[in-house]
Design goal:
CATH class of chain A: Mainly Alpha
Strand order of the largest sheet of chain A: 1-4
Order of helices and strands of chain A: HHHHEEEHHHHEHHH
Largest sheet of chain A: 2 strands, antiparallel
Number of strands of chain A: 4
Structural class of chain A: mainly alpha
Structural class of chain B: alpha/beta
Shape of chain A: globular
Number of strands of chain B: 14
Strand order of the largest sheet of chain B: 7-6-8-9-10-13-14
Largest interface: A-B, 48 and 38 residues
Largest sheet of chain B: 7 strands, mixed
Distance between the termini of chain A: 40 Å
Radius of gyration of chain A: 19 Å
Number of helices of chain B: 15
Helix content of chain B: 40-55%
Oligomer: heterodimer
Number of helices of chain A: 11
Radius of gyration of chain B: 22 Å
Number of domains of chain A: 1
Strand content of chain A: under 5%
Order of helices and strands of chain B: HHHEHEHEHEHEHEHEHEHEHEHHHEEEE
Strand content of chain B: 15-25%
């Protein structure tokens, strides 16, 4: 029972990071109907931005950690907007395939530029948030798990509020619903799309910082594996759907952890993918994919 | 998905080709073009220069996840080549070391070695640290009949690839037994848990040999957990290990993952010592927040310690420090010794012909190096003492030497 609870905590912790990355995929897909493959590499840039900012931060503290995270989020938001402006916008009226290939190209570009700029070798990530362990009976909860879970929940709630309750959120939903009609109604869709990319990239940066805080060795290819898993999580939950991405991330994280802790540990990814196929067979739009009006 | 390294190498190759082309006269140029760029033909001067050098190829993980291994090994190799050349070279010729980076990627080493053999026409190949990449390269070297000396790959399969493949370090059946005895005697462990990287030939092999040795000594393996190279999250496996309540945890893996495993083990409240093999030895092991504390009082076996009391080692450490500004580790020392073995073979063969070097390598005997005496046995492996180091305050402290 103790082991079960401990694995559940482990699973929720890694799952909430998948959820955070999945949000970025889902957000861009919801508005533009395309998969931003460069998202996992913006995640990596976020971690490196955090590393450089964090080095100048002496003592680990909650305030300092948040500061580093906000800094990295701002840097990545700008990066995301630039990527959209120069790589995706010129191709917006072309076929979806051109944009998709551009996204893959952008992903490769960031990975290789990362190796050139940051160096290809894994580097230690400085302490940003303080860490300690809390023992609850036989179960151990690390402050890392709490920070990761807390930040993910706060960002998820903030995003949901932003999309459903604010003017820009309404504009995003309108653009997602019908870009031409939205433009006719006086919405500057370039601004809206730019904002969406900035927001998605900021979330990727937050994910990158949390990932690096939990697994403090970062390298320019660190985004590939979690990016793929998070993408699967977004599809599992219903891509384009915010609570769906969160649910998908948590589910994948928990399943992965339980499989890894069993004797079939090397099958963890295979089992997650088999589950995805089974769920998509019965619910082709993903777990929460049917609620059309809630799409961002 | 990464094309950076390859592209650079490709571009460099093209540049060299173009440079050389400018030396050629027009008819020769046409001849080369007619040959369909089958390769850049060296000019007459270059062939004359070639007669004065012996080309030795090296492939190493200079970048990527095992960069520390590749860098140390390369530095040691380079130092040895410089020492030999400063002392007048071999057979009156200088050694030229041509190095390729395999980026710590499985699959890249075969490409690197093919390049060294077909483009650079090296007489012998030195490399690598990681067993899986040495084995890949060994298949190519065996096919082209170019002798390969692995400085520090310990998996038995490396030299089993063929009779052109050698190594100057001990093998994992020995290392596994050493650590099994160490666990039983020094750590007084009765129950040990294993954590293995299933994608690594080295890790799987060492885990098996350890297990056999530990069970033979009356110990019990209470948990066996697995992970793969790209894993960052080990908490699931460690939670299962914790439930089994071992006295110590054996982790035959490479340093990059060991750090993360140690950090996460301490987060889960696992306080027992962790121990492993020579894959741990890199300064990066204890770098980063909390890493040194997490690994305090842990042990690993390796080939060499700069603290060992021997004039040969002291001299090597001083020379290495002067050249590179850092203290050599086992990979550096073995890189050095791999060159000594090659030079010894070339001298005794009296030729830089690959086949003759191979025959001479097979009879390397009582060759004194910095990691002890090298004598290659019928399996083309060396038998050398193992050194056990303890991690104290983030540093590796000499604990004991175990002779074969």
């Amino acid at each position: 029972m103790t082991e079960f609870l401990q694995q559940l905590i482990n699973g929720v912790s890694v799952g909430s990071m998948y959820a955070l990355i999945a949000l970025g995929y889902t957000l861009v897909y919801g508005v533009l109907r395309f998969i931003n493959f460069a998202h996992s590499d913006v995640f990596m840039v976020g971690a490196f931005a955090g590393m450089y900012l964090g080095r100048n931060l002496g003592q680990a503290s909650v305030g300092g950690g948040l500061l580093v995270m906000l800094g990295a989020m701002a840097i990545c938001a700008v990066l995301g907007m630039l990527i959209e402006r120069f790589a995706y916008r010129p191709l917006r009226d072309r076929s979806k395939l051109s944009v998709l290939i551009t996204a893959i190209g952008m992903s490769l570009f960031l990975e290789n530029a990362g190796q050139l700029v940051f160096g290809p070798n894994p580097q230690p990530f400085p302490t940003t948030f303080p860490s300690r362990n809390f023992e609850l009976g036989l179960v151990v909860v690390s402050s890392k798990d709490l920070v990761v879970f807390g930040v993910a929940v706060v960002l998820l709630a903030a995003l949901q509020l932003l999309v459903l309750k604010t003017r820009i959120g309404t504009a995003m939903r309108a653009t997602a619903f019908n870009p031409q009609a939205a433009a006719l109604m006086g919405i500057n869709i370039n601004h809206v799309i730019s904002f969406t990319f900035g927001l998605g990239s900021a979330l990727a940066a937050a994910g990158g910082i949390l990932w690096a805080y939990k697994f403090p060795k970062i390298d320019p290819l660190m985004g590939i594996a979690p990016g793929l898993t998070a993408f699967v999580a977004a599809v599992l939950g219903g891509i384009g759907n915010i609570p769906g991405a969160a649910l998908g991330g948590l589910l994948i994280g928990i399943i992965e952890t339980f499989v890894k802790g069993s004797r079939w540990s090397t099958w963890s990814e295979a089992i997650a993918f088999i589950l995805l196929i089974i769920i998509l067979m019965f619910r082709p739009a993903g777990l929460l994919g049917e609620t059309q009006p809630e799409k961002v | 998905m990464v094309i950076g390294g390859r592209f650079e190498a490709g571009a460099a190759e093209l540049l060299i080709c173009m440079k050389r082309l400018s030396y050629l006269s027009l008819p020769m140029l046409l001849a080369v073009l007619a040959a369909g760029f089958s390769g850049c033909k060296p000019s007459a001067e270059e062939t004359a220069a070639d007669a004065q050098i012996i080309k030795v190829g090296e492939f190493a993980s200079l970048t990527g996840s095992e960069a520390s291994f590749g860098q140390s090994s390369h530095d040691g190799t380079l130092l040895a080549v410089e020492d030999i050349n400063n002392a007048g070279g071999v057979l009156g010729k200088k050694l030229q070391l041509i190095t390729e980076d395999d980026q710590s990627k499985d699959g890249e080493s075969a490409t690197a070695v093919k390049k060294l053999i077909s483009r650079d026409k090296v007489v012998a190949i030195l490399g690598e640290v990681a067993s899986i990449r040495s084995i890949e390269a060994a298949q190519i070297c065996q096919q082209y009949k170019v002798p390969q000396i692995s400085p520090s790959s310990t998996n038995p399969k490396v030299t089993q690839t063929g009779d052109y493949i050698f190594r100057v370090c001990f093998i994992d059946p020995f290392q596994g037994t050493v650590m099994a005895q160490f666990a039983a005697k020094t750590l007084k462990a009765k129950k040990v848990a294993l954590l293995t990287d299933v994608g690594s030939t080295y890790s799987v092999g060492l885990a098996d040999f350890f297990k056999a040795g530990f069970i033979a000594g009356g110990g019990e393996i209470v948990a066996e957990q697995k992970f793969t190279k790209d894993d960052k999250d080990f908490k699931a496996q460690l939670t299962a290990v914790k439930t089994a309540n071992p006295d110590a945890i054996f982790i035959p893996a490479y340093y990059g993952q060991v750090t993360l495993i140690a950090l996460q083990a301490r987060e889960l409240g696992i306080t027992v010592p962790l121990f492993g093999g020579d894959g741990w030895e890199a300064p990066e092991l204890t770098e980063g927040p909390g890493a040194a504390e997490a690994l305090e009082g842990c042990y690993f076996s390796t080939h060499f310690s700069p603290e060992q009391d021997s004039p040969k080692i002291k001299q090597f450490v001083a020379a290495y420090q002067k050249r590179f500004g850092s203290v050599p580790d086992a990979m550096g020392a073995l890189g050095y010794d791999s060159v000594l073995a090659l030079v010894d073979a070339i001298k005794r063969a009296g030729s830089s012909d690959s086949d003759k070097i191979r025959d001479a390598l097979a009879t390397v005997k009582n060759l004194e190096g910095v990691t002890g005496i090298t004598t290659l046995d019928t399996n083309r492996d060396a038998q050398k003492p193992a050194v056990i180091l303890e991690i104290k305050g983030g540093k590796f402290v000499y604990k004991e030497t175990v002779n074969p």
